[in-house]
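Reviewers of the previous submission asked for a worked example of the structure-prediction workflow described in the proposal, so we include one complete record here. The input consisted solely of the amino acid sequence. No template or homolog information was supplied to the procedure at any stage.
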Amino acid sequence: MGVWQAAQWRALEQLAGSAARETLEFLPGLLVFGHQWNIVATSYKDGKTIL
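From that input alone, the workflow returned the following structure tokens.
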């Protein structure tokens, strides 16, 4: 999930610019394993994606 979210942060910056990325506190994510659902969130700080 961390690699996927890192790619989403990069795509957001490429498509909308760094100002748009900086306005978001986190990106939500959803992991589904059978009947178990988990919500995750990543933030972006100092060029790194933090899970």
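Helices lie at 2-16, 18-23. We consider this example representative of the routine output the project will generate in years two and three.
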